[in-house]
């Protein structure tokens, strides 16, 4: 039996009967002896209520514990003993630390059972709890997305059913074979369009028009028009099937898709109608500027690449490190360009005409590029250049490691979340099948042992977000079963 020593700094004459009392509790097979003067420090906790009502009726006692042995005066709790060892510290130290290896979400459930407020958690444990809650919310969102893709709920509206099918066809490549074929075709069209844009700039491939200017080959223009037609149809179908039109417009990837399509139609408008509104030279300049925007379509590859998406999210989480990198480089560029300009003024053929013009030299030197178009000629200027590129290497290397760590952590976290979401779905399906067996057994009148055996595998350490997804899964399965009958 694990006995917690009674405090010796209390004045025994000031203790009443309840403070002098002691109770024996059995937490998941671990026996403890607790004292009333310790438990009454938090009178609203479950243990304080238990020691204060130990002389009352058994109904009140059994409402506070799982079982009670009057002979041994021992209270039984079917709870986690490791978590209780952490919770009992609040009576002695006024704060609680979650030991390593205990799930923070389940630990909060234990604290709610023992009626201990979460404010007694230490700050380090609160940060771990917040992180776990965020991961849990992400798992629940992934579970909901997977449940939406299951499509087990019949749509009462035919148009809504067609809209959802079209959305899955255009946005969920893993949902069916046709959706996967469309995703591969879209990926190939992006590659072909980018290749045509590059090949069209080769002078040997271009042709001369009536005025002697080089223009793209007609075959390349036809391929470009075909690709734009595919992108346009794809964008319109995704827009029509989108469940939330506003979110569709504001999505970053959809903005990229729009920017990849828009220049083509603007160029057509300016080519055939722009000459009536402005000079031909201005129309050609506008057309060339818009054709440059075709490079935005290369970002469409991120829609079909989970690696590029992971890299984007990792960079978003590394804004602090990227800011430090820019700050280090900015300070170094300013300092070394000013020094380079000052030290090179004594040379008659100096290439440093001003400090702003020296910024370019500082940038290519600190990034170890060194084009050679501007370089120092004096001895002190060369020493300044050597120090500048050494400082540049250090300034770049310092924030790179945290950025790489963020990428690795986020990538591994995404894989774990996907695995956890699939595991939750398997548990939901298993629980749903067990519930259907219980209902069938209840109808036949032989419930007994089957229901009791199933109850033993469940605890009150449930997760609300996953429970909501479980109820959604059950309701959808029930709807599909009733529709089949």
From TrEMBL:
Species this chain originates from: Salvelinus namaycush
Domain of life: Eukaryota
Limits of the Potassium channel tetramerisation-type BTB domain: 23-124
Intracellular or extracellular location(s): Cell membrane
Gene encoding the protein: LOC120023257
Gene Ontology CC terms: voltage-gated potassium channel complex
TM segment ranges: 177-202, 246-268, 322-343, 355-374, 386-404
A single GO BP: action potential
Entry's Gene Ontology molecular function annotations: voltage-gated potassium channel activity
Entries under InterPro entries matching the protein: Ion_trans_dom, K_chnl_volt-dep_Kv, K_chnl_volt-dep_Kv5/Kv9, KCNF1-like_BTB_POZ, SKP1/BTB/POZ_sf, T1-type_BTB, VG_K_chnl, Volt_channel_dom_sf
Protein name (record): Potassium voltage-gated channel subfamily F member 1-like
Keywords, sorted A to Z: Cell membrane, Ion channel, Ion transport, Membrane, Potassium, Potassium channel, Potassium transport, Transmembrane, Transmembrane helix, Transport, Voltage-gated channel
Membrane topology: Multi-pass membrane protein
Pfam family, one: Ion_trans
Annotated ranges, domain Ion transport: 180-414
